[in-house]
């Protein structure tokens, strides 16, 4: 294998050639251009590339090895030292602090990477590569490759009840990408405010605002989003999670769905349906289909593979009212040139082969067992909490007694190596909301879920400073 780095030397300058090579390599390591464990060319190869003596390169390599920036590994040549990472890194932010390393991660929304169907996905991707023509290797259509749009319409119709056509289906790079496009389309329509559920995902609200659209919080009741405040707000667009409300988990009732669609038709408004974990209904009966078929002319349906397979795939989709398809294409052409064609062809094969159906069948069985373990653990170790909503998705909301110190409980659980998110952060006015915990239970095994809840129960039972958790 021939490795290459970007170096230049000045032969008639005052600085010796070896020092020039060492200085440039040192600069690239310090800037992070050469990352830890990066292989460097052999001294013979680099000497040939720069047309200098091999001894000059050996001298530079030895100097940097002595400084601890490079290391020589038998059988692997010279590489940047594993510890030579001088870049300043920004932490990944969780609310207002970095995500700490913990033993038990109960953050919601992430499937267990162990469950990813590696063999089946690899087979689909290989078939996609082998059969790829121009659609897979060239710039893909803005709406997405034909094969995937056709498969999505078929799959969403039989599994989620969605009504649509390939011509009005758009493939995106996940839901955030889709939401950004929707915000752009709303602005084109003269709509600068978007109603959101209260509670809802805090980062989603921030994302919408950063895309130039103001958010208006509308309360969620036992039947889903309250429609009367929606009328009163005067907004002309609303974002909802009707099948499994995030974070409370309550499904929108059939009556409330009809009222919401009636609002859209009365006001000329638009409904954006985020079906973020559609297909992961875990109860044997009472499965809720998508809202979209209740009003396909007013609902923008959006889904994603992030919860079904893995967020790293960056695959999402929208089924659009025909009236909006052209507008959405015009908005998109100013932003990007479409999504990875080979990834789309692989996912089309995954759908066509029934592999996604088989994978989700296994996941529902696995998650059902984990949810059962969570329920039993809460009953045993955290009996003051009340679990809300049906058995569905990748999380459950645990309501705490009024007056419980949610923030202190979350902090004390972290001290016991359990990372869990409180429920108040998802509310528009956190200080007025009932305390609770949003428990993601799919990233751990059943024994891990039980131990995590036991530790949260231990944190809840502790009385710091002689004061009880609930006043």
TrEMBL record:
Superkingdom of origin organism: Bacteria
MF-aspect GO terms: DNA binding; DNA-binding transcription factor activity; pyridoxal phosphate binding; transaminase activity
Database matches in Pfam families: Aminotran_1_2, GntR
Entry-linked InterPro entries: Aminotransferase_I/II_large (IPR004839), HTH_trans_reg/aminotransferase (IPR051446), PyrdxlP-dep_Trfase (IPR015424), PyrdxlP-dep_Trfase_major (IPR015421), Tscrpt_reg_HTH_GntR (IPR000524), WH-like_DNA-bd_sf (IPR036388), WH_DNA-bd_sf (IPR036390)
Domain (HTH gntR-type): residue spans on this chain: 15-83
Alphabetized UniProt keyword annotations: Aminotransferase, DNA-binding, Pyridoxal phosphate, Transcription, Transcription regulation, Transferase
Stored SUPFAM superfamilies: PLP-dependent transferases, Winged helix' DNA-binding domain
Matching PANTHER family: HTH-TYPE TRANSCRIPTIONAL REGULATORY PROTEIN GABR
Family: In the C-terminal section; belongs to the class-I pyridoxal-phosphate-dependent aminotransferase family.
Name of the protein described by the UniProt record: GntR family transcriptional regulator/MocR family aminotransferase
Source organism (scientific name): Streptomyces griseoloalbus
